[in-house]
Amino acid sequence: MSRWRARHSTLLLANWEGETTAVADRRLDEVGKRLRGPVDALPTGTPEHAAALAEYRDALTGLRNRPGGFWIAGPDPLAAEHALAGTVPLESLASVTLLSDGATRLVDKFALADWREVLAVLDSTGPDGLIRRVREVEGGDPDGRRWPRGKTHDDATVVHWPLS
Fold this sequence. Notes:
Elements: E1 9-15, E2 20-24, H1 27-35, H2 37-40, H3 47-61, E3 93-100, H4 105-108, H5 115-139, E4 158-162
Antiparallel strand pairs: 1-2, 1-3, 3-4
């Protein structure tokens, strides 16, 4: 069995009018929704959950870097041909933020904040403050009953660049 981690990041672009645009490749999420039922039905950290998670990961392996699946550039540089790409005039931006999937959980997993609220936390307490809030929420649901997930805590990384 091959071990690999499927990750995605979100690029958060904020303009000077206070509007935010989140850019993320959600193809892995879409594939995962079709396959995650058995994983999400079990308490995180149990042997049954671990077995279901291993089956889920094996199923994902067959869909990696294939049409109808999702693309990860790490193991296959040709996957870059399927990447999301675009441009934004730098002078239109108030900030640029890159968040790993573990850092976006307040918005996309737990639905406890929106992107404006995330930016407010980042502007007031920085990346450490945002990650601390994510950890508090994760700690309140350690077995994943309220918010089913593969593991209690996910790696969380944030780069926040105010352009003022």
